[in-house]
Write the structure tokens for this entry.
Amino acid sequence: MSEEDKSNSTQNASKSNKAEQKEESWGYDLYPERRGTFTPKLSNILIGKEGKEGIEKFKCEKNVYECVKNSPIVKVMMAALKSSGCPVDIRRHISCEVCDYSVSGGYDPELNQIVVCQNVSTRKGMVQGVLAHEMIHMFDYCRNDLNFKNMEHLACSEIRAANLTHCSFVSAWSQGDASWTKIKQAHQDCVKTKALYSVMAVRQIGKAEAVDVIEKVFPKCYADLEPIGRRIRRNSDDMLRAFKEAAYYGYE
């Protein structure tokens, strides 16, 4: 083998190794209990940060149950998933777990399971937000056959979840995406920011690459309001309206 061939072979091997590393980097270690790597630390137990996992799990599961039974937006998503051929069994498809404190929940497409971070989402309102957001991902995986290892698919689902369930004017303001002089643009900027952080949390990529893929798919994905049919604003009747309108979409 010539020196040039050896060089090309080395470069190809290097590219292959980088590709494998990027494939393996699917998701940071944000869910240690799921990965079997969580062990309470004595220092955290002494300060009360850890050591109450059983109590946290019980409270979390109680909040999940109450949201599934009573939350209009969660009930809409449950009905939409059922109508799409993917009924949700809360014992199988929703799991309360210990997570990294940087996340409040997540969706595991390999197990088709929503993770509610019991040590972060400690209030019912937070659990409702996690369930609604992650059920958008579950709906996309079920209805649209998304591949979450495809960057464009991932970005689209994150855009939809932020668009439908997250970005009120108050949320946009808190993220620095809103001002009284650009109210009309605030929601779109909030959605892009939320999607950006979510994509970067799931995949080990640079900000520029994440921004590029979000901008590429944004117009189409931002316009897709399925299955809720409207953007949910904070402190409004939008959730109840979406629940009442669900029958028009065949979700009941």
About this structure: The beta strands are 94-97, 105-108, 113-117. The radius of gyration is 20 Å. The chain has twelve helices and three strands. The CA atoms of residues 133 and 161 lie 5 Å apart.
